[in-house]
Amino acid sequence: MQKITKDFLTEFGFEILPITENIGHRAAIYVEEHSLSTGMRAGDAIIAATAVENNLSLATGNRKQFKDIKGLILKLFKP
């Protein structure tokens, strides 16, 4: 399954970014600060931290999880 996913991402031009120490640290802070109020879990925190650390937009249909994260650029859509 992992190969299928990687092949799909490569075929459509997605760039796979590494999880750096800074991303991990930032994600841990996000979980600590937002888990009670929004239900944020580790996976969402890593995605948000990756976007912030790389100055990228985050496309999501779930504003609640990410709305209070400073520096995060959200691109909202309706699923």
Q: Are there runs of 5+ residues with pLDDT below 50, and where?
A: none
Question: DSSP helix count?
Answer: 4
* CATH architecture group name: 3-Layer(aba) Sandwich
Classified in CATH, the superfamily is 5'-nuclease
In which range does the helix fraction lie?
A: 55-70%
Q: What do you see in this structure?
A:
This protein is mainly alpha-helical and 79 residues long. The mean pLDDT is 93. The protein has a two-stranded parallel sheet with strand order 1-2. The relative contact order is 0.15. The protein has helices at 2-11, 21-38, 42-53, 63-66, and strands spanning 57-60, 73-76. The chain has one domain (2-76): 5'-nuclease (Rossmann fold, 3-Layer(aba) Sandwich).
List its salient traits.
79 residues, mainly alpha, Rossmann fold, two-stranded parallel ribbon, 4 helices, globular
Short summary of the structure?
The protein is mainly alpha-helical and 79 residues long.
Question: Could you outline the blueprint of secondary structure elements for this entry?
Answer:
Layout (H helix, E strand, L loop, with lengths): L1 H10 L9 H18 L3 H12 L3 E4 L2 H4 L6 E4 L3
Parallel strand pairs: 1-2
